[in-house]
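Annex B. Sample input.
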Amino acid sequence: MSGPALGRTPFAVAACAMGAVVLASNILVQFPLNDWLTWGAITYPVAFLVSELVNRAHGPGQARRVAWVGFAVAVAASLVLAPVRIAAASGTAFLLSQWLDIAVFDRLRRGSWWRAPLVATLLAAVLDTAVFWSMAFAGTGGPWVTWALGDLAVKLVLGVALLLPFRLALGRLVARSAA
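Annex B, continued. Sample output.
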């Protein structure tokens, strides 16, 4: 499915949102709340929301464009503001999980409005967590396995919670395209 091309301003907004979410998450992941969770777990699921809204309104090709630009901006900034290990792990996990999210969402888009974003987000969150935490923190001496489990739990809960903003934003996108 390919929707209408994303105009310059909406593309810039989506790409900047994606970059900001990933950059914030790369910085916040360095600050644990406890032995089970870092602050980055709270911000990162919004990246899936951004790509899924673009995917729903404009198709997987436009969602991949936004992911690429968001990735480039976030990794470049992360190389300056976060350790290289975190930037590399984030970039790898981000691209793999975004591609999975976009592909699963596109495959399920014709079902119930909630099925595509829910299944895509949950599967992508598992992949992102496994890749990121094993690359970024394995062997560092920190409780990375428990952080990964806490991170995944928060991503799964927020994946469900973000269905409401997805539905509300989707209604606005449909209303705009009908006008």
